Amino acid sequence: MKYTADQKNKILIFSGLASRPLNDTEMKALLEEVSQSDLDAFVKDPIQETNIPEVWKERMNGLISQSARLSSQLYRLENRGISFWFDLDHLPKAAKEIMSGKEQLLFMLGNLDLLSEGGIPVVSSLADLSQTPGKAILFVEDGIEPLLHFEVVNVKLKRGNLLVFSPRFQPSPEQMIHHQQAHTQHPQPHNQHHQTMQKVESKSLESKSMEQNLQKPKPAGCRKVFISGSRSQEAIPKNIQESLEKICKLGIEVMLGDSSKGVDGQIADYLREPLYPYVSIYTVLPKPRIEVEEGWKLQIIEVHDPKLTQQKRQMEKDRIMAAEANFGLAVFNPISVNRYGNLQVSSGTLRNTIQMLLEKKSVKFFYLYGDEMRLADLHHQDGLSGLEEVLNSYKEEVFDPEDTDFTKVVVPKDMTLSELRHQKLMKKYEELKKAEIKLREALKTEKKPEKPEKPAYETLTLGI
């Protein structure tokens, strides 16, 4: 489902899907301090002057700036049949009576046609839903995702007999604490059936961590994937998301750098919701540049040579990651235009891929070609020939220069822009390959020869 820019802003601010979202206390304070008209004006045009205090404007702008992360979130929700409802005035009267009146949007799941049928009973708990034969509209404050673990919900959804609304995806921490306190303070009624349904309802309100533990994939032993990518890559396309889902399903440990820009930050955000437990963040800094979730590993790589620049330190970190990983996944946005109007090759991702292939490890290589994210499975048996074939294909790349940022680039008269890009790309590749081979030869002379180890597995074996 496509959403307008206003609707996407509203999702980022009010849905709780953004990183570090507004909590219940912040939401309440915001709605008390800012009028609905000012909120609507801000969502429509965050840059314009509004009556919103600067502290709130800054907080909300921080949420709206996460638009790149939202595309992957919406894709995952869509796969589960979940969308958003914005027209709160056209909900049944009974549903509006259940609402707090402060909702700005609702998560929605199920048969939307039930809204237009009329006379469909509206309920606000699993207990009431289980007692409602046939069709129903369910409104819950506690989060839509936990409901998907209950048979009564799934049966009605499959039959087209249910439409679910909630202002949240997961219960908020405040709601969980409130529910737990209320549940302990009030004794259970003696009616056995009512007790059973109370237990069912309380289960839907339990913490996110419990729900995830039920679904948590088993760790895949020592299997690790080093994911690297260009800093200029601003979104994670569908085919990459599908590979990530398979990696998560198999419980493979994900190794990431700590850049807040590009692929590192985008992949980390993707793995936060729902939280994937097997993630290691690598950094050469005392404090990583991206947030490390509870349960994730933080690997601080100490580079003791004071003469090394920050870039060289990052390169050493990447070499360690490539050495520890079983295989790689690279997201390559080959060439961008720097602030001086010159072509700049994404050398970090290219270097990482060369390193892993030289170490006889396979790489799942996603590369941007025109407007399409393509995939090449680079197997260690083929050495670098598969990578060279991909890079050489850029010589024939066709695109409209008027629709890109490359209009500033000065192209020689005897070349096309594609040929110039290809020339820059291959020159950088040859430089990186030569440097890496030279480094490996130098390391071999310092160490005793070791028996080459067979790679733990290949990407095709896992179907990733």
Mind explaining what this structure looks like?
This protein has 464 residues and is an alpha/beta fold. It is built from 19 helices and 14 strands. The chain has helices at residues 5-14, 24-33, 36-44, 54-64, 67-79, 93-98, 114-117, 126-130, 151-158, 173-185, 192-204, 208-215, 238-250, 263-270, 310-324, 347-358, 385-392, 417-446, 459-462, and strands spanning 82-85, 106-110, 122-123, 136-139, 162-166, 224-229, 253-256, 279-283, 297-300, 327-332, 335-337, 343-345, 363-369, 372-378. The chain has a seven-stranded mixed sheet, with helices on both faces. Helix 15 runs parallel beside helix 16. The longest helix is centred in the C-terminal third of the chain and has 30 residues, at 417-446. The chain is elongated, with a radius of gyration of 26 Å. The two termini are 27 Å apart.
